[in-house]
Amino acid sequence: MPVRLHELAHCRAGDKGNVATLSVIPYADEDYPLLVRELTAERVRAQLARHLGGEVLRYELPLLPALQFVCTGVLDGGVTTSLALDTHGKSLSSRLLALELP
Questions:
Q1: I need a surface site. Which of 18, 29, 93, 102 has the fewest CB within 10 A?
Q2: pTM score, two decimals?
Q3: What does the buried/exposed string (b/e) look like for 35-46 if buried means 16 or more CB atoms within 10 Å of the residue's CB?
Q4: Is 56 helix (H, G, I), strand (E, B) or coil?
Q5: Who wins on pLDDT, 90 or 50?
Q6: SS3 for 93?
Q7: CA–CA dist 6, 26 (Å, integer)
Q8: What pLDDT does 102 receive?
């Protein structure tokens, strides 16, 4: 049965210029392997495609446990220069947490 990412994890976000960093941290350590398997850079890119102009790099942090995604070409040039509404990394993290996992 599919589950939304926000049911398994929370997300911390940061942005600087046109780069956003999204860290996904499971509520329960035992869900980390599921996130490693299902939450690929490609899936994150697809989920946020409307807001990304660059690549998504994924870093695994098993000792935390967490996944970190560095997204480039986002935020319409950066929070302080964009005319778009709600372009902060926090908004991207909310969109990411809406992702449905199998």
A1: 102
A2: 0.87
A3: beeebebebbbe
A4: strand
A5: 50
A6: helix
A7: 9
A8: 86
Query: Which stretches within 1-102 are classed as H helix?
Result: 32-38, 41-47, 89-97
Contact 68, 59 (CB under 8 A): yes
Cβ 23 vs Cβ 67: under 8 Å: yes
Quick: pLDDT tens for 45-88. 999 998 888 999 999 999 999 999 999 988 666 555 555 544 55
Tokens encoding 84: 């778009």
How far, in Å, are 49, 58, 60, 95 from residue 86 at the CA level? 16, 24, 28, 12
Per-residue pLDDT tens for 16-33? 878 899 999 999 999 999
Q: How would you class 87 by CB atoms within 10 Å of its CB: exposed for 0-12, middle for 13-18, buried for 19 or more? A: buried
Contacts of 20 (CB under 8 A, 6+ apart): 13, 14, 70, 71, 74, 75, 89, 92
